[in-house]
Every structure is written in structure tokens, then in C-alpha cells.
Amino acid sequence: MRDLATLANLAEILGAIIVIGGVVFAVIQIRLFRRQRLEAAAIEVIRSWQSPGFTRAFTVIQKLPDGISGAKLRAHCPDCESMAMTIGNTFESFGVMVYRRIVPLAVVDELLGGATVVLWRKLAVWVDELRKEQSRETVYEWFQWLAERLQEQASSNKLEGAHVKHRDWKP
Fold it and tell me: In the chain, which end has fewer C-beta atoms inside a 10 angstrom radius, N or C?
């Protein structure tokens, strides 16, 4: 009987070890999955702003004066309003992804933080006019939200470039 009791105890211990091992494995897999998801989201952010249409829109819009009106935007070039919409739609998507925690704010900040804030400054008046024209406060709401969060982030951090901030980084 003692041998049977000993075997039962060993089986319980082995079962507990297997369960604990399974939980540890599951936690590791969940962490890996989350990291892969974040990396995939970051890659998607990069892809969307590396398109020729976005690049052209970015190049033109960044050269405009801050707070450009809709009339001046349309007068600047025939495609400028379409380019502004490309910028707005792209950053609208980024804003939603950050809010939903699909992409961390830090990733967008590192990739496009300064550009987001600058482009919002350029287009804020135009967006406000669109909101009034359409009687919808939600026009490019996530673009504005993202720019404001990034501006807050910038004002709470030192504004130094990665080349300075991480100059001592080693692989």
C-alpha cells in the first residue's frame, strides 16, 4: 500500500509541475504574441507613411504656413486639399490605433512624433473650417487627439534627437 500511496503522491507532484509548466509556457507565448502584434502594427505604421502618395502630400503640406485656411490651401495648388486629406486620413488612423493600444504612443512618437505635431499646426485651421462646413466636430478628431498627446509628450521630455539621446547605445 505504501508504494501505491507514494506513486499517487508522485503523480500529484508531477501533475502540478506539468500544470505550472503549462502556465509558464502560456505566459511566455502571450508575451511573444503581444510583441509580434506590436511589431506588426509598427510595420503597418511605417508602410502607410512610406507610400508615394503620403510622401508627396507630406512634402507639399509641410512647406505650407501654419494655420492655413481652406481657401489658401486650395489656391496653393489644385491637389493640395486632396493631399491634406491624405495626411488627415493617415494620422486619423494612427490616432485610433494609439488610442486602442494597437500601436504604442512611444512608437508613433519615435517614428512620426514631430511630423504629426507640425502637420497638425499646418492643417488645424483647415480642419476647423471643415468641421464647421460639415457641422461635425468629429472631422479628423483622432489626428488632433494624436497631435495633442504627442505635444504633451514632447513638452514633458527633453527635446533631443535619438542621435544624441542614445549615442551610447550598444547592440
Answer: C
